[in-house]
Amino acid sequence: QVQLVESGGALVQPGGSLRLSCVASGFRFSNTGMSWVRQRPGNGLEWVSEINRRSTTTYYADSVKGRFTISRDNVKNMLYLQMNFLKPEGTALYFCATDRTGTGRGQGTQVTVSS
User: Both ends of the chain: CA-CA distance in Å?
Assistant: First the structure.
């Protein structure tokens, strides 16, 4: 079965950077488009970014465009999210998932942006 384990979250100051990682197992990662989604305090799941299986196409929510970069390593079965110029509204539990609705997501990794 799909298993996704996120890591890399931390407390960071506004304007700072973080790199999230996700290790995938239990399915053919290299054949699957992947997404990052997040859940801010008191809110539902929000799609953040998507990458196709060959890394030829990426998509971003308007709120993160130009600051976040999604990438993947199909040899290592890893998904990444480089987050730069973080804002306080970026505080959330971040998940990797097999689609934009959060299917298959793991326990998530907490990102807190605060001074």
Answer: 40
